[in-house]
Design goal:
The chain has 86 residues and is an all-alpha fold. The longest helix has 14 residues. It is elongated and about 60 Å long. It starts with 14 loop residues before the first helix and ends with a helix.
Length: 86
């Protein structure tokens, strides 16, 4: 029995599924379906180091704990909120 080949590009955002697909396919099989993408597909996050006093860090952790989120998620959230009001 001949294995039926997948003739379309996968429509998924799953990195794992895409990796599995490209492990078994060659890009040249899809040359007619490809289009050039000019804008970035994946935006890298910018890492910013901040220095907090022990008291400030304790306060941030307390607020995050009260909200049920990680303190590392609280800070970008607050920065985003404040930047919208500028």
């Amino acid at each position: 029995m001949e294995k039926q080949m997948n003739r379309g590009l996968p429509q998924t955002d799953s990195i794992q599924e895409l990796a599995q697909f490209w492990d078994t396919h060659d890009l040249t099989e899809f040359a007619g379906e490809l289009e050039e993408v000019i804008e970035p597909v994946f935006e890298r996050e910018t890492i910013v180091e901040i220095h907090l006093s022990p008291k400030e860090a304790e306060k941030v952790e307390g607020i995050a704990r009260h909200r049920g989120i990680d303190s590392a998620d609280l800070i970008p959230e607050r920065v985003s909120e404040k930047s919208r009001s500028l």
